[in-house]
Amino acid sequence: MASTCPACGKGNIVSKTWMREFEHEGKTLEAEYTEDYCNACGTLMQSPETIRRNLSMRTAVIEESRKRSFCPLRTTEKLDHVDMESETDRIR
Ligand SMILES: [Zn+2]
After folding, report:
1. Burial call 22-49: b when 16+ CB within 10 Å, e when fewer
2. How far is the CA of 15 from the centre of ligand 1 (A)?
3. Cα 41 to ligand 1 centroid, rounded to whole Å
């Protein structure tokens, strides 16, 4: 699926996947990002599919970290929330 670069007309558009760090709720997380760029002039091509894919990778990493991070040392907010949920369960 190599396509010619619209910027220089010489290079091909290639996909590159790399790990990108981002901050979420004070934590540094890593998500896999894909970017399409020209292998001749380096112009970055942001296709809607690529953006959507990157966003969903990021969302998956955030959700994964939420599941793992029921750590009492993190935030009291989260603990309160958990307590409230179990109270509700008991009432039901
Ligand atoms: Zn190019």
Report:
1. eeeeeeeeebebebbbbebeeeebeeee
2. 13
3. 4
Q: Has residue 1 been placed in a domain?
A: no
- Residue 5 belongs to a domain: no
CA of 1 to the centre of ligand 1 (A): 16
Q: Is residue 3 part of a domain?
A: no
- pLDDT tens, 20-46? 999 999 999 999 999 999 999 999 988
- Ligand 1 centre to CA of 9 (Å) is 6
Q: How many structural domains comprise the chain?
A: 1
C-alpha of residue 92 to centroid of ligand 1, in Å: 62
Query: What is the model's pLDDT at position 69?
Result: 72
Ligand 1: distance of its center to the CA of 73 in Å? Answer: 49
Domain range enclosing 82: 13-91
Of 20, 13, 64, 18, which is closest to residue 43 (Cα–Cα)? 13
pLDDT in tens, 40-89: 999 998 889 999 999 999 999 999 998 887 655 555 555 555 555 555 55
